[in-house]
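Session log. Operator J.P. requested a structure for one protein chain; no other inputs attached. Running the standard single-chain path with token output.
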Amino acid sequence: MARILRGEVRWSDLNPVRGHEQAGLRPILILSQDVFNERSGTVIAVALTSRPQDAGFPLTLEFKTKQLPKRSWVKISQIRTLAVERVGKRLGRATPEELAQVIEGLNEIIGA
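Structure written below.
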């Protein structure tokens, strides 16, 4: 498999899930650093959705990249550690500004 890089948007199968976790085959945004992704066998990512979101920032953020086929929102509150085997084809890449906003939202949620 090609290297999995921070800021990439890739397909991932998030099943099985419980409760309010995002489910199914969906795009994810890779947040973890490249060296972590290479050496740990896992990635840290957040789920994306194409359904308009009522919750605003910091829980969600509209993703304005033109590389995705649909209008999308990053579900910042849906952070997951995933085995690299769950990570599939690359769909696009977040801009540095988008990635920084997602990290900022995550910091607000967890109180960093």
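Operator note: The helical segments are 34-40, 96-110.
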